[in-house]
Every structure is written in C-alpha cells, then in structure tokens.
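In response to the reviewer comment on reproducibility (Comment 2.3), we provide here a single inverse folding case reported in full, input and output, so that an independent group could reproduce the run without further information from us. The structure tokens appear first.
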C-alpha cells in the first residue's frame, strides 16, 4: 500500500501488470478499434461531433486561435453512467465493437474502483469515502492501442481530492513518423452530483484547500468550455486570494 502511495506521489503515473484484465479482451478491442478507423470517412462521420458538443468523432474542439491541436482524429464519448450515453453514438456502433467495449468497460470499472480503494487507504480516508465519490461516475473514452500493461495516470480531480498529496500528471505523447499511433484512454470521473473538493480529513490549518469547491457537473462544463492547454484548468481552479470563498 505504501509503495503505491510513494509511486503516485513521486511519479504521478505507473504501468500496471498482473491487473486481471484478460489479454484476449485487450486484443479483441485493439482489433475492433483498428477496424473502425479503417472505415471510409463517410461511415465514421455518422458519429461526428455535433455543434456545441464535445462527444463524437472528429478533431479536438478548437477554443482559441493559438490552441495546440492534436495531430489526428479521435472518438470521444461518455460511456457511464448508461443514461448519459448519447443515443447516436455508443448504441449505434457496430455490434462487435460495442460488445468488445462493454467487456473492456466492465473489467476496467472493477480495476479502477479497486485502485481508488487502495489510494484512499494510503491516504487514511474513511472507509468508502473515495469509492462513494466515484461510484457510478463518468467513464469517458477517446479510443486507441495499448499493450497488456495498463498505464495509470493521476488526474486533476485526484490531486484535488487528495489535497495535493497525489499530484496530477500532464499527459503528453510523441508522434511516430513511421506508423499510426492508436490509443484507448479511459477516464474515470466522479458522478455529476458529487462535490469536487479535498477530503475533509486531509484539511487542517497547515494544509488548507488549494482549490475552490465545485460540483462535478460544473467542473465538466467549465473544463470543456476552456482552451485545453496542459494543466491550465487546474490552475484556474486554485484559490487566488483570501476573498475567494471555500465551503465544505
């Protein structure tokens, strides 16, 4: 447990092996995703991002003229909770891809909740405090390739909940000049009704909360309404002066 905490505090990410997700599930998903990106453009455009939305197939949403854009197309969608799935996206995928994704989601959900439980125990949080925050929370998937080892990154919300004990990492990827890079990224986020703030047991006069409290729904809306530039949104969340109110 302490080794996990040390890794997250120092490195902010890790490669997870012996994680219990069967290789057959990963290989099947890898194949189905590759086949999707091989489809003719007109087929993929059936899932295109609609005006004012961030979900769907296409390029990154452009928020400003100087924004750095990813080199490549993507497919981004909320997959959990089920009632938040867009009817023109996940339900309309080819059955073989949809089934592969469902199997993958189920395995990753169990794994993520187990890891969150370990992280909470390392922080000495009350039993179930972390799990309750993420129970039936959002899973967002921009689709891609991964080896059997799973890469686990600490995100901004965990940095906030841990009151800075687990610092988040700024994800970057390099371009391969010789072949395509496909990745499958799964983001686990709290449920929309959750309040994003440090765990109460981690706040004291020596460790005040660095960020403003906000609902997950507002966090999600604000995040996608701003220019995506590294960890700039986390900086936006930070309390700048004593006049900014923090409520528990």
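Designed residues, in position order:
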């Amino acid at each position: 447990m302490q080794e996990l905490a040390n890794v997250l505090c120092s490195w902010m990410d890790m490669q997870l092996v012996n994680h219990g997700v069967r290789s057959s599930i990963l290989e099947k998903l890898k194949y189905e995703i590759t086949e999707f990106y091989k489809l003719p453009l007109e087929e993929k455009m059936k899932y295109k991002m609609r005006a004012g939305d961030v979900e769907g197939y296409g390029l990154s949403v452009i928020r400003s003229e100087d924004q750095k854009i990813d080199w490549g197309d993507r497919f981004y969608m909320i997959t959990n909770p089920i009632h938040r799935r867009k009817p023109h996206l996940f339900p309309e995928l080819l059955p073989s891809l949809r089934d592969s994704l469902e199997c993958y989601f189920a395995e990753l959900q169990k794994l993520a909740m187990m890891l969150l439980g370990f992280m909470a125990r390392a922080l000495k949080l009350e039993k179930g405090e972390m799990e309750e925050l993420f129970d039936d929370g959002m899973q967002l998937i921009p689709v891609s390739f991964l080896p059997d080892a799973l890469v686990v990154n600490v995100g901004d919300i965990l940095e906030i909940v841990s009151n800075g004990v687990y610092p988040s990492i700024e994800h970057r990827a390099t371009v391969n000049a010789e072949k395509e890079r496909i990745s499958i990224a799964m983001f686990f986020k709290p449920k929309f009704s959750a309040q994003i703030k440090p765990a109460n047991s981690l706040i004291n006069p020596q460790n005040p909360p660095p960020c403003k409290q906000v609902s997950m729904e507002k966090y999600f809306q604000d995040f996608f309404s701003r220019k995506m530039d590294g960890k700039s949104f986390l900086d936006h969340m930070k309390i700048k002066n004593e006049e900014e109110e923090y409520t528990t």
